[in-house]
Each structure stands twice: as structure tokens, then as C-alpha cells.
Amino acid sequence: MHNSVSTPHGVRRQGRGMGRWLRLLAGYLVVFGLVALIWEGSKAVFELPDYKLPHLAQIVEAFGRPTPKGPTWLVLLQDAGYTAFEALVGFTLGSVTGFLMAVLFQRYLPLRRGFLPYVIASQTVPIIALAPMIVVGMGWLGAPPWLSKSIIAAYLTFFPVVINVLRGLESVDRDALLLMRSYAATDNQIFRLLRLPASVPYLFTALKISATASVIGAIIGELPVGSTRGIGVQIVVGSQYNTFNPGFLWATIVMAALLGMGGYALVALAEKRIVKWKREE
Asked: Could you give the residue ranges of the DSSP H alpha helices within the chain?
């Protein structure tokens, strides 16, 4: 039976893949080493107390510290999972809403002129001021606790999608557009065969921004008093006990950062697969 891996071409391809992963790992290790050097060096040079900047060892130790609910890393992981669920719902709602709005704005110019300024103005309102109102309002309506956080995440998510997709839908080649119109193509055919494929790179650029923004929105929604689950709640707890246990606050920050990085990485992976498929097609 023919085995492609045993061929010289397969071996070379496997070797290149392994080398790429090794270079990537080496790059991460170098960056981590530089961050650790700057971190510990700054603490030593400026004589910063632990509650302002703990040692990296204290942060690592905080992950393994036992709690009534289990080790700290497990508690943070469970809360991060709850925040990830809120962010995912908000990311989905915001992305779909933003995409549909961009399509409508591209198809109907009066609609764009009438509503796009309000879409832009909506992002000038500080989300930290809106979050308590949304949380309290949704609680008064009897909605599940996670829904208000997802709405806040959607609020931060939809704007990049609207702007980038709208730009992508209008970035089509003028000659290709004129050619399709000369063949009497309908607006729906032009959208499906020309505008939509042209908007894909812009869409994924927006989705990568929105993936991290949705995590931020979910965490902000968890900050008002009354929330009981989520990584935002742990950040509040860590800030309250920062003087006595500074490593815990930074452990929650690290977990929140990993959550945002994970969302970005998933979208980037999907982009790599889909855009590659479109190119091959």
C-alpha cells in the first residue's frame, strides 16, 4: 500500500511542519524569558512591593493554592468556562447582527445614511456605564443571569463586524462588477458571487477583533455587584484581597488573558481553513 509519508516529499513536508512548530515554541520561550526578565528586573530596580507587582513565583503559587471549592486553577478554569459561554453567545449574536446590518447598509443607501451615524455614536458611550443598567434591567425582566453579560459582549462585538463587512462588500473590483451587470446579473447574484467572497477577509479581521472584545464585554458585565460566577467575579475578589494575596489577582488576569487569546486563536484557525479553501476553489 502506498504511503505518502514514506516518500521523500512526505518526509520533507513532515520535517518542515515539525521545524515550524519548533521555531514557534522557541519564539514563545524567548518572549516569555524577556517578559520574566523585565518583570523581575523592574521589581528589583524600582523596589516595588508585592501588592503592586508580585514575583512571578507568587503568581504560579497562587494557581496551586487550595480553596474550599478545590485548587485555585480549577476554580478559575470553571469560572473562565462560564465567562467563555457568555462571550460565545454574545460573539454569535453580535457577529450575526453586525453582518446583517452591513448587508442592509450596502443594499439600501438611505438606510445607511440614516442609521450608520447612530451605530458609530453607540460606541462613544462608555460600556462601564451601560453595563450596570443592562444587568439590572435584564434581571428585572427575569432573564437568566448570563444573558445580560452576553448582551454586553454583543454590544462590543457588532460594531467591528458592521464596519469591516461593509467595507468588504464594497471592495469588489469595478471591472468585475461592470462585467456581471453587462450579463444582466441580479443584485442577489452579484452579492452571492462577487460581494460576499470579497468580504470574507474583512469579515475574519472583524471576527478576530470581536473575539477578544466579547470576552472583555462578558467580564465587564460580571463586575457589577450581584454576579456570582465568571472570571470577572474572581477579578473583583482578587482586587479586594490584593494586599494579602497579590498573586491571586494576577492569576485571574492571566486566566482572562488566556481566554481572550483562545478566542482569537480559534477564529484565526477558522480563517486559515476557510480562506485556504476559497483560494483552492
From this structure: 8-46, 56-64, 72-107, 109-122, 127-140, 145-169, 174-182, 187-190, 196-222, 231-240, 246-280
What pLDDT does residue 4 have? 47
| Per-residue pLDDT tens over the stretch 91-100 | 999 999 999 9
Alpha carbons within 13 A on the beta-carbon side of 129? 5
User: Closest Cα partner for 263 from 124, 41, 86?
Assistant: 86
Which CATH number belongs to the domain containing residue 199 in this structure?
Answer: 1.10.3720.10
Domain limits for position 92: 56-280
Residue with the bigger pLDDT between 103 and 21: it is 103
CB-neighbour burial class of residue 67 (10 A; exposed 0-12, middle 13-18, buried 19+): exposed
Are residues 145 and 32 both part of a single domain? Answer: no
Residues 41 and 102 grouped into a single domain? no
- Residue 226: name the closest of 153, 157, 156, 137 by CA: 137
Q: Report the 10 Å Cβ neighbour count for 60.
A: 13
